[in-house]
Write a structure and sequence with these properties.
- The protein is mainly alpha-helical and 662 residues long.
- The chain is 50% helix and 3% strand.
- The chain has a domain of 265 residues: Glycosyltransferase (Alpha/alpha barrel), CATH 1.50.10.
- The strands form two sheets. It has a three-stranded antiparallel beta sheet, with no helix packed on it. A two-stranded antiparallel ribbon has the order 2-3.
- Helix 3 runs parallel beside helix 11, helix 8 crosses helix 10 and helix 13 packs parallel to helix 15.
């Protein structure tokens, strides 16, 4: 059967299935009707709660949580530098202890997740540094779990690099990351421009640490030899081979490591100076290098190793940036991987903009806050690929001018367009032109870079996390394409067409789309269906009907939707979870309503799920993590997702229902 015939057959089956499902659910439709009075009260309570959380200058920023790797590394950083804040380390330790999962004894990458070796090794070491006895029950459980998974020698590259600096393993147990990488020419197989922004900002200060063979102060002289199944100096298998290409690159990398002593001193000095200059240029004030925790820690430690005094302005900037990521809850504290003010602000605005009859002044105040944060003429790494393209993006964080984010830019511009397209015309034009200029060759849009698709680099020994690159994704492409469509500039029509072609080509066999920056297929599917609405694609288009069918097929019995982060490991678990969540229910509802399904029983049941799970404070909350930072290796919990996405769905439902009545 040809591909076209197969698609037609699938479409016919979807139609049949939809008819049967509609017939089966007719009897339950009455029971799932939405109480309008309850809906009105729910929206009012949620809107008031959101407005109460708005900052005085107009923006919103909610906590952004990661796994215990981040607070553990904060403790390890303090001991590396011998800058130990005893009160803070004990607060961080309480948080880490609270997150230990009693089912397996270790620490997961996300709430309720499986044991993760690297996170557990860092958490154990951090707790031992703080003073937890290895004989304490929680430490015994953690150590047993670590050893049963192969011990600390099997931890990932970033963990082993830290252990090498703490002299827990020899330097031969880590990849070769010399400062000379900054000298490589553009044609070389590895070049900084060929990896993602987060890889660059982490690797350059790390290359300084590795080249100078950094040694943690470790003032309490704490070691973790008990976490190894073989003495570290006798271990011979620090680099399990992943693929045939990885084997070849590993041999080449080992040869480079053996030849390091032969690097001329003048070359090493030049490389260190260039790396230092690159890092200092991007220190980014009190928001830090790359505005992300791993890069900021590496930069802080590298500056010390390069001889910058404790009171030097660069050291002070880094220190304040790191402290700015802390969330102090009183008895305990934790550390964010970064902050998300632009993202939280624009998504909250988009939610509240659905209710055009409500007072929009708080939204306009938030949009006004966005304008001076637009990145126009500042230097940026992206300019290497597009030197003649005027800037026009927004960063994810309060400040990160070298690294504007296409996803944030598209969402911000979408909100500005809906707020007052005439008032914000200049900003919108700059944003639209910049986004169109950042489209990759395949028609997709990535988060930060263009054509960042040198996939062979994920096979180098350093990249065991598989997240060295920033290739285009469906969710970012959807928002960029959707905004360009509503902006309506004729010169962008080809970019819109190429974006749509990319999205159609990325649809999964089951009708869903992969979610790179939100968990997972429910997020990706909502993102694309929203773009289809903005572009005004016929709602009977086969791709849309297939997506609608999939969303309805994974609705849970309680009317909600949920999806485990395990679906990044096993796509067969797409749209599946043990419970429904407010944010994934909202995504599914927004997607269905974007596809013209506002009157369907599935939507009514989903709306009722949100109404019955709303808390007394007017919002929603749950422990589940909402997005991957990097699929399969690093996950995030946007605390705002359970706040603004449900109210977005509720307001849209009410608006569409009232429009139908009118």
């Amino acid at each position: 059967m040809s591909r076209m015939s197969q698609q037609i057959s699938n479409f016919i089956n979807i139609k049949k299935s939809a008819f049967v499902n509609q017939w089966l659910k007719t009897s339950s439709a009455i029971a799932s009707e939405v109480d309008k009075s309850k809906l009105d009260h729910s929206i009012s309570d949620a809107r008031n709660a959101l407005l109460a959380l708005q900052k005085k200058d107009g923006h919103w920023c909610f906590p952004l949580e990661a796994d215990c790797t981040i607070p553990a590394e904060y403790i390890l950083m303090m001991h590396f530098m011998d800058e130990v804040d005893v009160v803070l380390e004990n607060k961080l330790a309480r948080f880490i202890r609270d997150q230990q999962d009693m089912r397996h004894g270790g620490w997961p990458l996300y709430y309720g997740g499986a044991f993760d070796l690297s996170c557990s090794v860092k958490s154990y070491y951090a707790l031992k540094l703080v003073g937890d006895s290895p004989d304490a029950a929680h430490m015994v459980r953690a150590r047993s779990a670590i050893l049963s998974h192969g011990g600390a020698a099997r931890a990932n590259v970033f963990t082993r690099l830290l252990l090498a600096m703490y002299r827990q393993i020899p330097w031969r147990g880590v990849p070769f990351v010399p400062a000379e990488i900054i000298l490589f020419p553009k044609w070389f197989p590895f070049h900084l421009r060929k990896v993602a922004y987060w890889s660059r900002t982490v690797m350059i200060p790390l290359s300084i640490l590795c080249s100078l063979k950094a040694k943690a102060v470790n003032p309490r002289d704490v070691h973790i030899s008990e976490l190894f199944t073989v003495p570290p100096e006798k271990e011979r298998n620090y680099f399990p081979v992943r693929t045939s290409l990885n084997r070849i690159l590993l041999y080449l990398e080992r040869i480079g490591s053996w030849l390091e002593p032969l690097i001329p001193s003048f070359v090493r000095k030049l490389a260190l100076r260039r790396a230092e200059q690159w890092m200092v240029e991007r220190l980014n004030g009190e928001c830090g290098l790359g505005a992300i925790f791993p890069a900021m820690v590496n930069a802080y430690e590298a500056l010390a190793l390069l001889g910058y005094d404790y009171d030097h302005p660069y050291r002070k900037q880094c220190r304040l940036a790191l402290q700015g990521l802390l969330v102090d809850e009183g008895e305990r504290a934790w550390c964010q991987p970064c902050t998300s003010p632009v993202w939280d602000t624009v998504l909250t605005c988009l939610a509240l903009q659905e209710d055009r009859e409500a007072d929009q002044r708080p939204v306009l105040k938030a949009l006004d806050w966005l304008i001076p944060n637009q990145i126009l003429d500042e230097p940026g790494d992206w300019r290497a690929a597009r030197p003649d393209l005027p800037g026009g993006g927004w960063a994810f964080q309060y400040a990160n001018p070298h690294y504007p984010d296409l996803d944030d830019t598209a969402a911000a511009a979408w909100a500005l367009h809906q707020g007052d397209a005439d008032t914000y015309r200049h900003s919108l034009t700059r944003a639209a032109n910049w986004l169109a200029g950042m489209q990759s060759t395949n028609g997709g849009f990535a988060a930060f870079d263009i054509d960042n698709t040198h996939y062979y680099l994920n096979e180098i020994p350093f990249a065991d996390h598989g997240a060295l690159l920033d290739p285009p994704s469906s969710d970012v492409t959807a928002r960029c394409t959707g905004f360009l469509a509503i902006h309506g500039d004729q010169q962008h029509q080809e970019a819109i067409k190429r974006g749509l072609d990319y999205l159609f080509s990325e649809q999964e066999a089951n009708g869903a789309w992969f979610g790179r920056w939100g968990s997972n297929y429910i997020y990706g599917t909502w993102s694309v269906l929203e773009a289809m609405r903005l572009v005004n694609i016929d709602k009977n288009h086969m791709a849309i009907r297939r997506a609608v069918h999939w969303l309805k097929s994974v609705q849970r019995d309680d009317g909600g939707w949920g999806e485990t982060n395990d679906s990044y490991f096993d796509p067969q678990r797409a749209g599946q979870f043990e419970v429904s969540t407010s944010f994934q229910t909202a995504w599914a509802l927004l997607g269905l309503m974007a596809a013209g399904e506002a009157e369907s029983p599935a939507v009514e049941r989903g709306i009722n799920y949100l109404l019955k799970t709303q808390r007394t404070d007017g919002l929603w909350a749950e422990p589940w993590f909402t997005a991957p930072g990097f699929p399969r290796v690093f996950y995030l919990k946007y605390h705002g997702y359970s706040k603004y996405f449900p109210v977005w769905a509720l307001i849209r439902y009410r608006t569409l229902s009232e429009r139908k009545v009118a």
